[in-house]
Amino acid sequence: MLLSLDLHDDRPLHEQAADAIRRAIAAGEVAPGDRLPPARDLAVAMQINANTVLRALRELRAEGLLEFRRGRGVTVLRRPDPGAALRQKLRDLLAEAGRHGFEPDDVVAWVRAETQQGRDDHGRAR
């Protein structure tokens, strides 16, 4: 499971860590029933404190994605809904655009232009 955080992201590290794990689950890198690596190993992989990883894991447990079992570690219960993963990608895009000085309305205009271009090219939306 490849997990990385964006050092330029303004969000708290525990939110970024939760999003990285959520994306790994959504992408099928870890499936329902799989055990996650220990928090200490995840912390080393993401180059953050183990307590930060534990906070992210607790957040994902509260969402119903993970289960904590004494002696068995952390297990994936289910995949997040695909819409949630797409909304997260949209939030990431908006954050990246903001770091480059663009407003959300600029992104909306780009989406509209791309959608229109797809219709023009193919007679329907891509």
Topology:
Blueprint: H1 13-26, H2 39-46, H3 50-62, E1 66-69, E2 73-76, H4 82-99, H5 104-122
Antiparallel strand pairs: 1-2
Helix pairs in contact: 1-3, 2-3
Keywords: DNA-binding, Transcription, Transcription regulation
InterPro entries: Tscrpt_reg_HTH_GntR (IPR000524), WH-like_DNA-bd_sf (IPR036388), WH_DNA-bd_sf (IPR036390)
Pfam families: GntR
Gyration radius, rounded: 18 Å
Determine the number of helices (DSSP H or I, runs of at least 4 residues).
5
The CATH superfamily of the largest domain bears the name Winged helix-like DNA-binding domain superfamily/Winged helix DNA-binding domain
Describe the oligomeric state of these chains in a short phrase: single chain
User: What average pLDDT do the residues reach?
Assistant: 89
Architecture per CATH nomenclature, i.e. the level-2 architecture of the largest domain? Orthogonal Bundle
Task: Give the low-confidence spans.
Answer: none
Q: Gap between N and C termini, in Å?
A: 31 Å
Topology, number of strands: 2
Taking the sheet with the most strands, its summary is: 2 strands, antiparallel
Task: Give the helix level as a range of percent.
Answer: 55-70%
Say what the CATH topology of the largest domain is: Arc Repressor Mutant, subunit A
Beta-strand level of the residues, as a percent range?
A: 5-15%
Strand order of the largest sheet: 1-2
What is the N-to-C succession of helices and strands? HHHEEHH
- The general outline is elongated
**CATH hierarchy, class of the largest domain:** Mainly Alpha
- Which structural class should the secondary elements be placed in? mainly alpha
> How many separate domains?
2
